[in-house]
Amino acid sequence: MGLPAEKLSIDQFMAWENLQGIRHEFYRGEVFAMVGARRVHGLVTGNLFAAFKTHLKGSRCRAFVEAMKLQVAGNAIFYPDVFVTCDERDLKTDMVFMRPLLLVEVLSESTQAYDRGLKFTAYRQIETLREYLLVDPDHRRVELFRRNDRGNFELIDQTGDTHLVLDSVALRLPMAEVFDGVEDGGADSDEAAG
Predict the structure, then answer these.
(1) With pLDDT > 90 as the criterion, what percentage of the chain qualifies?
(2) Which is nearest to 111 in space by CA: 77, 74, 81?
């Protein structure tokens, strides 16, 4: 089934999207089809999820990866690449999360404007959100936006640092682990072995 021709309510979108074979994001009545991810995207996403899962073991917080819906206010549904929540209501939900502490988007050329713009604008509405991490595997850029005491998000550029430092989950992770499996230079290599 194609994309809906008319603007939908969030409830209409949820009913429609749950019947689809591919994922879609929703913002203010508009529907956006999700595209497939590249290998480096999957590597970095997996590396971060694995690190968060191990680090959070035994705590009241949990990490989730790509296929989980995040509702922002009453007008948006997104699929963050990785997120962490410590909220009891989120930890009991089957499908829709609403109160993340940390959100991660792994960038590509086709998604970075969307992740930096519309998504970040929406994400800033989430009261529980403390950090928003953007990782560009092609250029090995790591940009962290951390909410300050005034409620504003400040950029902490960790590009070139030896460790990724996330205060929201008290984690100091070697950058080598973030980019494990990603060749120097970041871009996918199609070279055959030999």
Answers:
(1) 70
(2) 81
